[in-house]
Amino acid sequence: MPNHIILDRLSLERSYLYIDYPTLVLDGGYYYCVDLSTYPLPEERTMQVSYSPAEGLGPEPGVMRRDPSDIINVGDLYYVWYTKSNVSDGYDATVWYATSADGHAWIEKGEALPRGPKGSWDEQSVFTPNILVAKGKYYLFYTGVPTPFQNEGNQVTETAIGVAIADSPEGPWEKSETNPVLEPVDSRWRDFDSMRVDDACLLVRDGKYWLYYKGRRWDDTPANTKMGLAVAEEPEGPYVRYVANPVVGGGHEVLVWPVGHGVVAMVNIGPEGIAKTLQYAPDGLSFSRMMNLDEVPNAPGAYRPEAFTESGEGQMIEWGLHVGSAPGSLPFLERFDCQW
Question: What is the model's pTM?
Fold first, then answer.
């Protein structure tokens, strides 16, 4: 008997999956779908991306801005956090933030998170921030690396994920005493996340905190990065890895958001069938191809208004910020808009 995936009507309609295949049978309000990943998706379902300046965060001599967080709205302002430095990568940087009234013109407000003290796990750099809003507080997740740091050869430095807490998106931020909240698995070669854990992206599901992240194994290349999941009862953890990790067999930057009662992941790199796709999981765990993409924004962070609400009313993302590039310029932030 085939393995069936059960999706409720709301999840199907809001996931942009078509419901007119003969294999989909309406029965008591449920559609029973036989392995949707094996069925070709209609060519007209696609994502068109346009780009425009993120005024105030664009190209600037001697300044690098990259790795934008997902974007939240508080009062009359949008907030974004990002990696800032004067070199092109994130391994010698701190976390800054900016606000905007319209998502187009941004005001850089200052540094949100500094490096850790001497001898700490995040002494060398703090980067790739992301945000969780829960229990009346703000939780700023980030990646850290210690000193000395090395990114080449056989002694590559491990990365880990930490969190800082504040009562306001403006800060001040206090790093959690439980940091780091997620570290590489101590298996050296076996597990997909034995060297890198990075790029946290948070959702609230079933009253718990779902931390999606990217992982990489020792002696592997960025092209073989995969996406994992860890879940906690409280925002600060402890975070427990999903036993069937990785949940997506590709991806470098992590962007997930709720659509209906399920979860969509935008994946940029990976093997055929995963690279440059949207992946959908009705349970947030069992991802399969939903849509091929002609292009994917570079290391994007999106405005995800339903990410922490558990409303079941999440829609496809409409806009966000990503990492732009231009000849002679260090990385900068740029706005993207999606049309479906």
Answer: 0.88
As a whole number of angstroms, the distance between CA 160 and CA 17 comes to 36
Instruction: Concatenate the DSSP letters of all residues of 196-234 into one string.
Output: EEEEEEEEEETTEEEEEEEEE-TT--GGG-EEEEEEESS
- Domain ranges for the chain, please list them: 1-43, 46-339
Interatomic CA distance for residues 15 and 138, integer angstroms: 28
Give the Cα separation of 244 and 326 in Å (integer).
Answer: 40
Q: Which residue in 124, 107, 66, 48 sits closest to 299, CA to CA?
A: 66
How many residues are given for the chain? 340
Say how far residue 273 (Cα) sits from the centre of its chain: 20
What does the DSSP 8-state code read for residue 238? -
What gap in Å lies between CA 112 and CA 62, rounded to an integer?
20
C-alpha 130/C-alpha 99 separation (Å) is: 15
Assigned CATH for 46-339:
2.115.10.20
- Mind listing the pLDDT tens digit for each residue in 307-319? 999 999 999 999 9
Residue pair 47/293 in contact (Cβ under 8 Å)? The answer is yes
Residues 330, 93: Cα–Cα separation, whole Å: 13
* DSSP codes of every residue in 163-177: EEEESSTT---EE-T
Q: Give the model's confidence band at 170: pLDDT under 50 very low, under 70 low, under 90 confident, else very high.
A: very high
φ, ψ (nearest 5 deg) of residue 169: -65, -15
